[in-house]
Amino acid sequence: MSALTLRGLTVRRGACPVVDAVDLSVAPGEVVGLLGPNGAGKTTLMRGALGLIAADGVSSLAALPPRARARAAAWLPQNREIAWGLSVADLVALGRLPHGRGGTPADRAAIQGALAAMRLETFASRRATALSGGEQARVLIARALAQEAPLLMADEPIAGLDPAAQIATLELFAQLARDRRAVLTSLHDLNLAARHCTRLVLLDKGRKVADGAPRDVLSKTNLASVFRLDAALIETDAGLVIDPRGVLA
Ligand SMILES: Nc1ncnc2c1ncn2[C@@H]1O[C@H](COP(=O)(O)OP(=O)(O)OP(=O)(O)O)[C@@H](O)[C@H]1O
């Protein structure tokens, strides 16, 4: 059974569709990278899929009542602002809200597991608002992990993280997929997307223009037509490397 199914998902802003009749299915075991230039519709697609904004078409998630939806999908928005001066552990514990009143052994295990996964154990009693931007981003990822939902939807989760934390986060997503969970994540780093996602979906002006294996989606033609990039594609021992060399007119 798929973790998310979209059929003809369309979101209009004014008269214009900014997400235009997108069909998409994400299955357990997949890390699906959502790519596209600024304004392509990645955030809007995920918010429409979650039922956070009005959309036409079908989303298997948006069709669920709120509590069932919160158990079915964890959402990491692009906006990383932490407004409350909670401890890191208490903030991560908020991820358990869909499961009840909290405080059970399962809740404690999920919170500890999420803190460990994001290497935050030593920060547990620190005030989240007193952490650096990248540390706060890791706390918010931990909150989403603590939710233990079958699907994680993350909007540019590695933005602002240092290189090691970026790779560690994507390796963690791969581990979630090996545990038969599913991840849908928007990314701007094409090389990390190529290396760490099992599948890529490319959006351009709200439309899905490619969906498949990373090396098929990140073709020279797609890089040129969608990203306006003149890029060399280099095969290495570690896989495909994309070397952007210039911007096309
Ligand atoms: N509240 C809004 N009102 C009007 N237009 C909006 C609104 N939110 C987004 N848009 C427009 O919808 C389009 C898609 O925006 P979206 O944020 O989904 O893009 P994105 O692919 O996530 O971009 P980025 O990579 O910059 O985060 C953009 O043209 C944007 O200007």
TrEMBL record:
Matching Gene3D superfamilies, A to Z? P-loop containing nucleotide triphosphate hydrolases
Does this UniProt record's set of keywords contain Transmembrane?
no
| Domain named ABC transporter: residues | 4-230
InterPro entries from the xrefs?
Answer: AAA+_ATPase (IPR003593), ABC_transporter-like_ATP-bd (IPR003439), ABC_transporter-like_CS (IPR017871), P-loop_NTPase (IPR027417)
Q: Give the record's keywords alphabetically.
A: ATP-binding, Nucleotide-binding, Translocase, Transport
The molecular function terms in GO held by this entry are:
ATP binding; ATP hydrolysis activity
Would I find Transport among this entry's keywords? yes
The record's function comment reads: Part of the ABC transporter complex HmuTUV involved in hemin import. Responsible for energy coupling to the transport system.
What protein name applies here?
Iron complex transport system ATP-binding protein
Q: Organism source for this protein?
A: Roseivivax lentus
Classification from the root reads: Bacteria, Pseudomonadati, Pseudomonadota, Alphaproteobacteria, Rhodobacterales
